[in-house]
Amino acid sequence: MIKLFSGSANPKLSQEVASILNLPLSSSKITRFANSEVKVTIQEKVKESTCFVIQPTSNPTDTHLMELLFFADALKRNGAKKIIAVIPYFGYARQNREHLPGESVSVNVVIRILEYVGFDAIFAVTLHDEATEGVFSVPFKNIDGFLVLHKKISSYLSNHFKNEAVIIVSPDQGGVERAQNFADSFFHQKNVEIAVVEKKRNLEKIHQSKALNLFGNVKNKIAIIVDDIITSGQTLVNAADLCLKKGAKKVIAAVVHPDLSPSAKETIEKSPIEKIFVTNTIQLKEKIDKIEVVSCASLIANAIKEYLS
Q: For the chain, where are the alpha helices, taking DSSP H only?
């Protein structure tokens, strides 16, 4: 028996996945108390069932993470045969190394806790650093969220910028492999030219960085900036400004996770970026005109099907 549960972080995405799989969402109750504690109650029989829990650990990250952990405990106590965490956005994934002396490597702690509470496997969409996959000791599936963005952006370019030259841009040195993979898949060939922004991040202050230089020829081309996460929007905007300064005709962006800060809307709307395509791994709190959301539900549903086959 297969059971599909949804946490409270993104119920719309969970329902889309359930519809594709032709499964109902199983019944559960999430209670929030006045002291900010949360309780998860499973409201149907799960004994000997394989249970999937869909819950991005997005803002508020700690709240959504605790909810996910309690799902595991509740399902285990009620006799579930297997419990799989489907985490479209994996919170704390960017805290994957000690940038400054004395810092925690928080993603390692989160992974160990998820394993300890009883998850038999974990799925995520576009984990920030593929090297983090090596930390997991239970089966882990890293779903490529860019797959649903390739087709959407191709259609957008055909409708708005047909026959224009295009170049893929990485907004920093750390995203070069990500941009190259996107370019190879987007153009259906290997070793496509990309451009790379040299970025300097202020490690003492969060969400502050500066674009220093651009390596690659963007002149008279449509620049597609590729990144996995957008929070403040400043990295994308700085990269876009630099591309336009170097002669790019237009700038659009492909970003899997819209993990937006309160100031992001204003930053994005005032930016020179034409359009930002994101997936729905995180449910947006408000509409932003320049952002177009593309559903990744089919990718998650396919990953579940593959696991069960």
A: 11-21, 61-77, 106-116, 147-160, 176-187, 234-245, 264-269, 297-308
Report whether CATH 3.40.50.2020 matches the domain 2-144+298-308.
yes
**Packing angle of the helix pair 176-187, 147-160 (nearest 10 deg):** 60
Q: What is the CATH number of domain 147-280?
A: 3.40.50.2020
Catalytic residue, chosen from 199, 221, 250, 265, is 199
Best CA proximity match to 247, nearest among 271, 216, 211: 216
Rounded to an integer, what distance in angstroms lies between the CA atom of residue 61 and that of residue 192?
37
Residue 35 is given by DSSP the state T
Is 3 assigned a catalytic role? no
- For residue 125, pLDDT over 70 is answered with yes
- pLDDT over 60 at 185, yes or no: yes
Q: Which of 224, 142, 243, 242 is nearest to 185 (CA)?
A: 224
Taking only the tens place, the pLDDT of each residue in 22-67 is 999 999 999 999 999 999 999 999 999 999 999 999 999 999 999 9
Q: pLDDT tens-digit profile of 58-75?
A: 999 999 999 999 999 999
Measure the CA–CA gap between 289 and 151, rounded to whole angstroms. 20
Q: Is the pLDDT of residue 281 over 80?
A: yes
